[in-house]
Amino acid sequence: MEVKGEMITYLRFIGVTKDATTAGPGKRLELFTKGCIRGVINPCKGCFNECTWTFEGPFRRMTIKEAAEIIERDAWNRQVTFCGGEPILQGKSILKLAKYLKRKDPTFHFVLYTAYKLHTLQKYGLQFTWVPKYGKGMLDSLQDFTETYRIDPKTKAYKFTILTPKDIQELMKYIDIIVDGDYQEDLRLTDHETMHEGGFIGSSNQRVIFCKESLQQGNLCYLYADEYDTLYSNSNHCKACGHIIHNDKEFCNKLCKDRYEQYKERIKHLR
Question: Domains in the chain, please, with CATH?
Answer without folding.
Answer: 2-234 (3.20.20), 236-271 (no CATH)
